[in-house]
Amino acid sequence: MLQRYRILRSEDVHNADHIARAASLALGAPIVIAALNERYRNWYRAAHGVSEGKFDSLQTFCASANLSDEAFAVTDARLESYFAREPAVTGSPNVVFFAGAPLSDPDGKRFGTLCLIDSQPRTLTLEQLELLKSMAHIVSQDICVCSAGRYAVQDLIDAEEERCALYDLAVTDPLTKTLNRRAFFRFAEREVQRAHRHNHPISVLMFDIDHFKRVNDIHGHAAGDEVIVRLSRLVADSIRDTDLLGRLGGEEFGVILPETGIEAALLLANRLRESARGLSFKSAEGSFNITISMGISQPEMGETDINLSLERADKALYRAKRLGRDRAELMSASPEGAQIIPLPLPRGAAGAA
């Protein structure tokens, strides 16, 4: 809401020069500047008649006004010992008349001073002094609103970041940063229902690492974790952002491929399998490679339950293992529809895994 009504702007510094210009017109002062404490000066500006080259020097000169708790007016600063030697008085912009009113929040916390400056001596009537105090009150309110808005927006940002972090913890596998089992099934269910609703194809892959227990037994669990992490990263880099990858348990993973027919799923499965063969690992026990086995399926006509496809893909995965591993197998809804996808490469380089 604050951004919608431009109470908070996208730029770093909130520009309230229009308020300073109104004060200049109302009080007849050629220079008006909100001299702020450094904390507020970094993000709030209200000035009129001040060149960029003189802005900082006037901020420094006007800082002395913060010593006053009430509105004041100095007719001729050259005649006041406190101001007479100030660079802004002896040189450009040749301050002569100097007036100010405190800027503060409702609890009295001081922001700075709204200052009027002229190069000619002059006085303020009581009505003009009251008007200066009113203009200072407007600037103070503007600072309060903007400050509250900045904190509110930051609180919202912090809350959203915390919510996102908690969400990531709830849906992400801590080792691989892929979806965890619960999140994978939840999102996969949505995808199959969407595919059914729009009559789009969808394919399911399940795969795991062949002889993974041997990797842990020979090379250690740290090496086993490295295998799981690097394999999951390889798969994540090989699929689309719209695809789902989840770690279902141990070394077993699932992939959901929305808007993907079975032929494209078969090509991807063999490409992933061959890429996995190309991964090399080292441990204190020596170098080794891995292979993976894959099961492929897709929902049958009218199926809206992803679990049925995942079960078929799981059966196809274990069929691939029984038939020699390092292979992909497709299974349709009927058992007799099972199809083995032959390997294009020999299996001789599977290594110690």
UniProtKB/TrEMBL annotation:
UniProt-recorded Gene Ontology molecular function terms: diguanylate cyclase activity
Annotated InterPro entries: Diguanylate_Cyclase, GAF, GAF-like_dom_sf, GGDEF_dom, Nucleotide_cyclase, Rev_trsase/Diguanyl_cyclase
Protein name: diguanylate cyclase
Domain GGDEF, residue spans: 200-333
SMART domains: GGDEF
EC main group: transferase
EC number(s) stated in the UniProt entry for this protein: 2.7.7.65
GO biological process, one term: cell adhesion involved in single-species biofilm formation
Cited Pfam families: GAF (PF01590), GGDEF (PF00990)
One cellular-component annotation, GO: plasma membrane
UniProt catalytic activity: 2 GTP = 3',3'-c-di-GMP + 2 diphosphate
Gene3D superfamilies, alphabetized: 3.30.450.40, 3.30.70.270
